[in-house]
């Protein structure tokens, strides 16, 4: 009797996740399938090339959607900006009803790999962010935005607040670039990253102070306890033993 093959364990790690798809893809296909497929192929050539140039790896593709992973959040955002700006320029040559507009979602989260595919809640959240944003725009989670390098500064960004995404239990704070909301009332990306960095410093300082305070309290408590034990031991000890001797023997 053959033994069943061992199930291969998936590799889990924290990654930057890029999710993209075409807005209104089904409608475009219904209107003109051949033209839509030709536009998709041309767009995908540029997307795939740009992802590779920024050290990303395409993991999952299905129809009009793309999932890729990056080691660097700054590379992922720079790549996304290049893609959206290039495709927007190309779409300006077409009438609005024929434009092939991508939406992009960016998140940092845990993924696990199965073969060449990536799965997990982090992938799902990136895809939901992408579905929430406008055609031609980029939607990012707060955790992604907090780690992007300040070299990508001076760009308008809209704070969408905490949004409820489909099939995500907890509301997620989201930010948007290259959208009308960002252009109309966005804050500068530089200010947002600085604020986030300050938050991180406060959290780290608070945590450090917490450790110091707790350590001090523990030290005082131990000192009081040892003093009490020593006092009791002095009253009740046999003549030739000390509490330190007992602790050493144990």
From TrEMBL:
<protein>
    <submittedName>
        <fullName>Adenylate cyclase</fullName>
        <ecNumber>4.6.1.1</ecNumber>
    </submittedName>
</protein>
<feature type="transmembrane region" description="Helical">
    <location>
        <begin position="202"/>
        <end position="229"/>
    </location>
</feature>
<dbReference type="Pfam" id="PF00211">
    <property type="entry name" value="Guanylate_cyc"/>
</dbReference>
<feature type="domain" description="Guanylate cyclase">
    <location>
        <begin position="16"/>
        <end position="130"/>
    </location>
</feature>
<dbReference type="GO" id="GO:0004016">
    <property type="term" value="F:adenylate cyclase activity"/>
</dbReference>
<dbReference type="InterPro" id="IPR001054">
    <property type="entry name" value="A/G_cyclase"/>
</dbReference>
<dbReference type="GO" id="GO:0006171">
    <property type="term" value="P:cAMP biosynthetic process"/>
</dbReference>
<dbReference type="InterPro" id="IPR050697">
    <property type="entry name" value="Adenylyl/Guanylyl_Cyclase_3/4"/>
</dbReference>
<keyword id="KW-0456">Lyase</keyword>
<dbReference type="InterPro" id="IPR029787">
    <property type="entry name" value="Nucleotide_cyclase"/>
</dbReference>
<keyword id="KW-1133">Transmembrane helix</keyword>
<keyword id="KW-0472">Membrane</keyword>
<keyword id="KW-0812">Transmembrane</keyword>
<dbReference type="GO" id="GO:0035556">
    <property type="term" value="P:intracellular signal transduction"/>
</dbReference>
